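Known limitations

Structure tokens in this collection are predictions and should be treated as such. Users comparing against experimental data should check residue numbering before alignment. To illustrate the layout, the record for 6-phosphogluconate dehydrogenase is reproduced below. The input appears on top and the generated tokens appear beneath it.
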Amino acid sequence: MQLGLIGLGKMGGNMRERIRRAGHTVVGYDRNPELSDVSGLPELVERLDAPRTVWVMVPAGAPTQSVIDELGGLLQAGDTVVDGGNSRWTDDEKHAAELGAKGIGFVDAGVSGGVWGLQNGYALMVGGDKEHVDRLQPIFDALKPEGPYGYVHAGKVGAGHFSKMVHNGIEYAMMQAYAEGWELLEKVDSVTDVREVFRSWQEGTVIRSWLLDLAVDALDEDEHLDKLRGYAQDSGEGRWTVEAAIDNAVPLPAITASLFARFASRQEDSPQMKMIAALRNQFGGHAVESAKKA
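Generated tokens:
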């Protein structure tokens, strides 16, 4: 099968390689000419036989919209576009309507696997009409892990990215739980080898997971994480998960708390804690610390 692939970064580049290893033809485009197979989207479309399939792996929002707009002017009725980035599910509905008006199919694919996907395969959560999804099945089969799991046609357009968004929200909460447990273990004097405690959990416990394995790998590289700054970015999907929960009146206390913990990580001197310190001083005479001079 032929596939056009736009965006050859850490994920897209490895996906191109995995699909090619499965025997398919991939024509890739990236703004970096050293990575790209073609000079631009017109050449990419020209090199594909109709009906064409083009997979988009660029950042969500304006970059994705720009690519969708350009493809809408280059592709023909019967072609299909796949958005495999981290777009918001509501954008999928918009893009499907825009392309559908021109007879172009649209599929959204939530992709998980990170830098390990080339070796282990990518978990795929797909949304769209059955006719469009079925046509892409050889590509999905090439990307997914071996075995019966790692792929789902989750539902209508938007369902793939919505499922991936919830997946990432759960990921936030799991990482936060490991992080809090690690900090508590590091804090007490009685536990003298926190890294080996984490390692012991990798077999026979109910909290074993790939994230735990990765935590042990990180501790092997830097036992007390002294080389890292306590700052964690959020991709945006954690926010969207919490917003969706509010819209649907679904309580998500653990995921919401993990998102707010990331916000707290960006504050070197928490404004909230200033007020807490001031109030404790006012009602109880508790000691306060002076702000450090710049």
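For this record: The domain at 2-156 is CATH 3.40.50.720 (Rossmann fold). Strands lie at 2-6, 25-29, 53-56, 80-83, 105-112, 123-127, 151-155. Please report discrepancies through the issue tracker.
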